[in-house]
Amino acid sequence: RQLTYKEKDTEPEKNQDRKAENMIDMAFVSRFCSGDKEAFYGLVTRYKGQVFGIVRKFFSNQQDTEDISQEIFINLFKALPGFRGSSMFFTWFYRLIINTCLHHKRGIRHKEALMPERKEAYLEIPDYSGNPLALIEKKEFSGKLQEALNVLPGNLKAALVLREIEGLSYGEIAAVQGVSLGTVKSRIHNGRVLLGEELKKRVQNSEDQE
């Protein structure tokens, strides 16, 4: 994927912001690992919104979302002493978040279907702009979009959510998922195509019933 001029201009600034945020994260981590357990709540405050937002895209049930979000922070509390700072904290933590979500999804589905290459789907939806997730805040589509999102295989969904909802770069997603840049691009592309097809089915079914 070729960066637009806007993305080229903002990428260095984004990297600087990441480094600054990582310094704050590492200060909390250092305090926690030195015995200041109250520092953990600083990390909870910083990341609770992101955690809940990501989990909500994997599980539509409110109680499941709350329970798994809580479990993620329990897992973080246990894993934090083993974090050595070889990567940015947020990529390490996002991997923990995604892995926890996928673990629970596997418990529900047992196995994920392999998705073949698909042709691009065209959706006649206002403000679609080639990205189904652009509709997530539109009330009339949010329910159908969540249903369509739930159909995606876990790794595709994770890549798409990290990119379109959390705003991570391809390189950051590769670090979170532990895969190559090419795999990330493929997952995002395939995820968009599959999501578009599933959303199109639901919109058409809704129109047929009217």
Strand content bin? under 5%
Low-confidence stretches: 1-9, 110-130
How does the helix and strand content classify structurally?
mainly alpha
Whole-Å distance between the termini? Answer: 40 Å
Number of helices: 8
| Number of DSSP E strands | 0
How would the global form be characterised?
A: globular
Q: Tell me the radius of gyration.
A: 18 Å
Report the mean per-residue pLDDT as an integer: 80
Order of helices and strands: HHHHHHHH
Main β-sheet: number of strands, strand sense, barrel status? none
How much helicity do the residues have? Answer: over 70%
Task: Give a short synopsis of this structure.
This protein has 210 residues and is mainly α. It has 8 helices and no strands.
Describe the structure.
The chain has helices spanning 5-33, 39-58, 62-79, 89-109, 139-151, 154-165, 170-177, 181-209. It is an all-alpha fold and 210 residues long. It is globular. The chain is built from eight helices and no strands.
